[in-house]
Amino acid sequence: MAFAPATNYILGIEGGGTKTDWVYLQISPDGQSTLLDRGRLPAANYRLIEQADLKTLLRSLPSQATHVGIFLAGCATVAGADELATLGATIWPDAEIATGGDRESGLAAAFGDQDGIIVISGTGSAVHGRRNGKIEKAGGWGQLLGDRGSGFDIAVHGLRHCLRMYDVENRTHPLAQSFLCELGLNSLNDLVLWAQEADKSAIGKLAPLVFEAAEVPGSKIDIILDVCARRLAEYAGVVASRLDFKHPPICLLGSVFAHQPKYVDLFKKHLACHTPDAEVEICGRSGAHGAAFIASKGTLTTSEPATNEPAADRTEDLATAETEQANPASAHLDELDTPALVTLFVKDQEAVTHALADRKAELEAAVDLVYANLKKGGRLFYVGAGTSGRLGVLDASEIPPTFSASPDLIQGIIAGGHEALHRAVEGAEDSAPSGSIAITDRGVNDQDVVCGITASGNTPFVHGALKKARTLGARTILLTCNPARHREGPSADVEIDLPTGPELIAGSTRLKAGTATKLALNLISSCTMIRLGKVKGNLMIDLNASNEKLRARAARMLTTLHRCTYQEAHQHLAAHRWNVRATLDALTK
Fold this sequence. Notes:
The protein is α/β, with parallel strands linked by helices.
């Protein structure tokens, strides 16, 4: 990308303990700002992240900029800011670089270069104020000692309330049932074990369930919200007093304030007890915009920039994808009775078989590619988002028990991480840099194969992963259900576009597209395992006989392969720790 004369290109980055936000802006000579791109990356607390990991994260961002602002949590000293600036200069050598902590970027997002107080309630919490060059702070001591009034704090109070109700009343509170449903857990014991291992972000994401529970009359959950809001208001009042603000402008930042109007009202109610003349508003700009404001040295305003229209290209591609089109066969779906619906859905699945048969050559090429690399000691990585990502993780998870293969041999990577297995993670699939970072963090190398899975064929997370894999020398496969997808040169060594056609429910790619994708992944992994010698005849002699059902299956296999009785097979297998292959080897010596 060539720079336009007298035009500034601003990259603003704000990193915290749970995520990193960034914006990429263009400022024309007349001062008009345009949003070119934006995104979200993994956490980047300066005190917690390794320098090599931070450098990898920053390198995934736009490479051309005239001004770069890097503001990270944990960067609280001049020496830290200087080190961060030195690191930034290695990535953007021709840019002017501004660095510091997330307090500066938060204040800039809220007030530009003016004075005021920011109250943050997201996963964490803190109150920061600035007046006439003086800075004051309250809270923000992390989840162990602080973060009062944050999403994490609210969720922890909710978890404790559920356990207290169980201890005192011997019943599972409805909020606990909501937690179990959200996390896919089965019991309170499972919930406790999960909470002991979960990170701050994962726990904080339970806060919306606490707000929902508080709406139930008589639940007493509203007391939790009141206590948390009161503590934040107290901190804000203290900061206002220390700065001698009579009519303090207060800006509320963070996901809790942004999505929970009841919490905003509770905060204002308690704040009135400390600073009744405060002017409170919710900040609609991200800390990354504040980082960009500081980096621009005043050329960027605090108003929202215009959106660059070409960014709609992916939306247009999605609109023309075969999986997004309306299916004429289901035009009156809402008018059909149950027998007609079932008949229609069963018939529609015929397209799956035809689609797989139509791409037989490509599937053969994929199997040969994976087999060749795994035989040399490589691994297979599935990469996807949403349904595609879940199907990849599912197929990978079934390889170890079926073939006694190492869990490292075939791995699943899903946009949004573990949480995305249970529920949608907003915006996770839209970040190509996140896909690239996932490939780096998994240690993909030139012996491996990366299979990108995307029904539409244009998911940025997947293409970011494939692009990074190619630079590392890995072989690549792209599996889609959209033969008509837009192409700008080869995306992978093997490209499989299954022609499943429009879904009965338009755009619901968990239907035919999902079924075809699952079968294709089953085919690739199973055929590879067969060629690697994991099957004898049609029997999976390397299965992990870890339960009664599988032990019975192993015994039946041995009766077929060694021509012995079921009781004899049981005894032989028990003597060899239920390892079918080892048992066969011992019996055939």
